[in-house]
Amino acid sequence: MADEHQMSVSVWRGGTAGSFQSFDVKMEENQTVLDVVAWIQQYADPTLSYRYACRVGMCGSCAMMVNGVPRWTCRTHVKKVLKDGHMEIAPLRNLPVIKDLATDMDPFFDKWVAAEGLHHPTQTRHDPIEAIDPASAARVEANAGIECINCSVCYAACDTVAGNPDYLGPAALQRAWSVYNDSKDADKLAILDAVSGVGGCHNCHSQGSCAVHCPNDLNPMNAIAGLKRETARNFFKRRK
């Protein structure tokens, strides 16, 4: 029978070819998974590596796999994920492991850039600021994904990324859609070209894991569907 005052926590140690190590951790009231990881590092094994910053669900840097599910550990309460007194914590899926629970985020951000998820300006800093109607259809579409903080939870949840390392992933494509709908962006064709090739939006199988697991309740599937429509429209327009 499980001890009501103590939990068993399996934590990934080492690199990609590492293994799980078990720790016994005291149960506390209002305890988050990040609290557990911090306790292990402070009191059980100071060599444990992990990443965090704000602890209040603003930065997303504490994202890890908890019982096989990508989550913000600072917002995940132990009582919601503990199973028979046990919990498993691992680094985010689909990313190279640096050490223990810390992953290399470079591939994720490289795809963000590869998807042309960057602003192509129409004016200089010397020009007057253009007024944008917040109720316009394009602005509403752009705003739908603006709260993405690049925590990579959707990337870790995506089975398409797992099966196709070249796939740009939901976060990069959502960013591309936000920029595409920004009326101040000057190179929409560059965005469509970037997301229509190998690894682009048409690789998405619409399984929906990105929408299910996004901590900010965003829906990258909608953005990807928009990119599919626009890239298809652009393809036939060019063939005329």
UniProtKB/TrEMBL annotation:
This entry's Enzyme Commission designation comes to 1.3.5.1
Which GO biological process entries does UniProt record here? Answer: respiratory electron transport chain; tricarboxylic acid cycle
Asked whether the UniProt record includes Cytoplasm among its keywords, one would answer no
Q: Which cofactor does it need?
A: [2Fe-2S] cluster; [4Fe-4S] cluster; [3Fe-4S] cluster
Q: Specify the 2Fe-2S ferredoxin-type domain's residue ranges.
A: 7-93
Q: Name one GO molecular function term.
A: electron transfer activity
Top-level taxon in the UniProt lineage = Bacteria
| Associated pathway | Carbohydrate metabolism; tricarboxylic acid cycle; fumarate from succinate (bacterial route): step 1/1
Task: Recite the UniProt keywords alphabetically.
Answer: 4Fe-4S, Iron, Iron-sulfur, Metal-binding, Oxidoreductase
Q: Does the keyword Transport apply?
A: no
Q: Pfam families from the entry?
A: Fer2_3, Fer4_17
Give the record's subunit note.
Answer: Part of an enzyme complex containing four subunits: a flavoprotein, an iron-sulfur, cytochrome b-556, and a hydrophobic anchor protein.
Family note: Belongs to the succinate dehydrogenase/fumarate reductase iron-sulfur protein family.
UniProt-recorded name of the protein: Succinate dehydrogenase iron-sulfur subunit
